[in-house]
Amino acid sequence: MRLDVHLCALVGTPPVSAFLHQLASGLALGGVYAIMALALVMIFQATQLVNFAQGEMAMFSTYFAWRLIDLGWPYWRAFAVTVIVSFFGGIALERIVVRPFANAPALASVIVFIGLALIFNALAGWLYGYSVTDFPTPFDGPPWFGQRYLSAHESGAILVSLVVLAAVYAFFRFTSLGLAMRAAAQNPTSSRLLGVRVGWMLALGWGLAAAIGAIAGMMAAPIVYLDPNMMAGILLYAFAGAVLGGIDNPFGAAFGGFAVGVLENLMGAYVVGSEVKLSVALAIIVGVLAWRPSGLFGRRIVARV
């Protein structure tokens, strides 16, 4: 189940059916972009910086899941273990690597993030090689409910994305730990005065972002194949979605991820072609930054001078 297979299947189909298929497939990809965008926003809210290593962290977690499945583990057990390991790995990464640069200039932190991306990419290539590998899907088989426009994996990817978004919303809206993390990200000084351990809240945010990114990687791998560079384009699309929806608004960013997935598929199929459709993400980023830097749902900050 790959994009080229879908395109071949569309040859000779009526235009309306082809359009609906591209729209539905765009929603499936958009679900992956949405949860990656959510992971980016979680780090941005706490640090005001974009974690350029988010995609490579997700890729490395996906390789970890692939290794467990290759050893004979059932898919969902490997999925759960990978999410848990990624969560604690994200916490360790923040405490050991990122924390020493907490008070450093922004440029130093950006260099650290880029360095982490290069390290994860090289480490994955060293451990697993650079050959393209199939990644299994738990939603294999015929399309659900006789659906003509979505494969079983695409339907499952959308479902998983919605479940992740709902779980994250419930966590931050209805739990005391989630509320403490939101407070620490938005106003760390006041949160410290109220007894919130801001440092650990930031570490937990990194852990959640790593776990969410791992889910995105495992949902994307059956579509784009598994290799050390698999998340490069996905990270760019996710960043475009975060910018479109508002990089300081988690669920605005998630909406932007779905929107970018649909735009990418439709533009690639009917306007610019699949070879240059990555430029759609770049055009979205530039256009939004020029027209509305805060994004569609982001907050405009007004300062008195």
Automatic annotation (TrEMBL):
GO cellular component, one term: plasma membrane
Segments traversing the membrane: 20-42, 49-69, 75-93, 105-129, 149-172, 200-224, 278-298
Annotated CDD domains: TM_PBP1_LivH_like
Keywords, sorted A to Z: Amino-acid transport, Cell membrane, Membrane, Transmembrane, Transmembrane helix, Transport
Chief subcellular location: membrane
Compartments (UniProt record): Cell membrane
Topology relative to the membrane: Multi-pass membrane protein
Highest taxon of source: Bacteria
Biological processes annotated in GO: amino acid transport
GO MF entries: transmembrane transporter activity
PANTHER family documented for this protein: ABC TRANSPORTER PERMEASE PROTEIN, BRANCHED-CHAIN AMINO ACID TRANSPORT SYSTEM PERMEASE PROTEIN LIVH
Family: Belongs to the binding-protein-dependent transport system permease family. LivHM subfamily.
The protein, known as: Amino acid/amide ABC transporter membrane protein 1 (HAAT family)
Organism of provenance: Roseiarcus fermentans
